[in-house]
Amino acid sequence: MAANSAALQPGRVRILKEASKSAGQNVGPVVYWMFRDQRVRDNWALIHAVEQAHKANVPVAVAFNLFDQFLGAKARQLGFMLRGLRQLHRDLEETHQIPFFLFRGNAEDTIPNFVSECGASLLVTDFSPLREVRKCKEEICKRVSDFVTIHEVDAHNVVPLWAASEKLEYSARTIRSKINKKLPEYLIEFPMLQPPVTKWVGTSRLIDWDSLIDEVLRKGAEVPEIDWCEPGEKAAMEVLMGSKNGFLTTRLKGYSLDRNNPLKPRGLSGLSPYLHFGQISAQRCALEARSIRKLCPEAVDAFVEELIVRRELADNFCFYQPHYDSLQGAWEWARKTLMDHAFDKREHIYTKEQLEKAQTADPLWNASQLEMVYYGKMHGFMRMYWAKKILEWTRGPEEALEISIYLNNKYEIDGRDPNGYVGCMWSVCGVHDQGWKERPIFGKIRYMNYAGCKRKFDVDGYIAYVKRLGETKKRKAESLLGRKAKELCT
Q: What is the pLDDT of residues 111-135, one digit of tens each?
């Protein structure tokens, strides 16, 4: 059921829980539980929360719950996220006079407790298709008082997931026309975020960001932070529109060709970390791209296809397919062909540890794994080859899928994302793909090999590029250790 709103389309909001009305019941504040969309600007969930607070003449606050090591996240991912949230905290409170509360532990406990403490009447959440978050929301619905309404706003997708399609879509071909039909309604400019009319009573709790970030970096040190990608909303807009190296302003022209060349990482938009953590809105990216389509129609169309159709197809899969990360989630033809070939003889069988340490006989695969370890981002073309070789080198499709998801979530800055799950499912289980010529191990799953890569790009150049990344990483680590040793001696 959709909740009515003047500022945003009714189809963007769902009622997860309707409060029971009671005579004489005081209307309390609005709380926005921020999870997936970690930004102030262009955030439909925040816009909705503030607007609902205005209508009821009550204050509004933003709450964020830090899940420790959510789905295997380490220093790389949590450091990036927390640095972005620190900027968001300052912007919310100083520019918009909206308090920000940070909690740690289980959101099933912390969010209902906060709602109860402040006497909130409305809890607004943003949307995620991942099962852990959905289960958490179900529990929160049970735990909050019956006098609390809960709204869920899809602030992540351009066309809200439930408006785009009411079922599991087979492929990009089947969802594309549905999304395109709805774009005129949903791809609109954002209204300005209004300051709250009623001030929050009391102060928000102090947050020691430095100590928190230090703790997270220490606990997750196994996968250190990356330095090529600065966190936060301002940095995200710089990557999209910056005058020096912005994607739409300086790099767009070569996108349709360069995005498939692993030797040209700058040919990609570089926006995926920001989109994953919600530090930039996909809708903002699409609006800006659409405004310059006349200059590079082919590049803009390719970008919008990835940004809207492919991303929203991934959300659709994870929302409507409960087994989005297992062989059970594959189409029947793919499950059958994979099981028919599950016991085919493999030339090599590697353990998870060998794969994680890039200890295979294939220098190209090793380079792709190390690019992810060093850089926090494997090139999109290599991700396909990487996952398909894991299928070829493990004891069966279940193990291949498990290992590819584990490595992706651990090392990719944008891991633990519907795009990541679907990328692994596409490569290993043929999801959103079709059957191809039958062959050993793969069955009818699309095949990729070293020779095919060699025809497409300079394989030796790519291996050398990753080796340089590793050497740079090593030098920086040694320099950091040296600085720390000096500090200890002084």
A: 999 999 999 999 999 999 999 999 9
Contact (Cβ atoms closer than 8 angstroms) between residue 281 and residue 158: no
Q: Supply the pLDDT for residue 6.
A: 46
3-class secondary-structure state, position 322: coil
Question: How far is Cα 93 from Cα 98, in angstroms, rounded to an integer?
Answer: 5
Q: What would the mean pLDDT of 60-88 be, rounded to a whole number?
A: 91
Cβ atoms 422, 416 nearer than 8 A: no
* b/e map 341-380, b = 16+ CB within 10 Å: beeeeeeeebeeeebbebebebbbbbbbbbbbbbbbbbbe
E-only strand ranges, 10-81: 13-17, 30-34, 60-66
- Domains of the chain by start residue, with CATH: 10-156 (3.40.50.620), 160-190+231-320 (1.25.40.80), 327-473 (1.10.579.10)
pLDDT one-digit tens code per residue, 85-100: 999 999 999 999 999 9
* Planar angle of CA 199, 203, 205, nearest 5 degrees: 140
Distances (CA, A) of 490 to 217, 441, 482, 485, 486: 24, 60, 13, 9, 6
Secondary structure of 349-373 as H, E, C letters: CCCHHHHHCCCCCCHHHHHHHHHHH
How many angstroms separate the CA atoms of 342 and 346, rounded? 10
Residue environment code for 297-333, b if the CB has 16+ CB neighbours within 10 A, otherwise e: eebbebbbebbbbbbbbbbbbbbebeebbbbebbbee
pLDDT tens for each residue of 233-266:
999 999 999 999 999 999 999 898 899 999 998 8
- The total number of residues shown for the chain amounts to 490
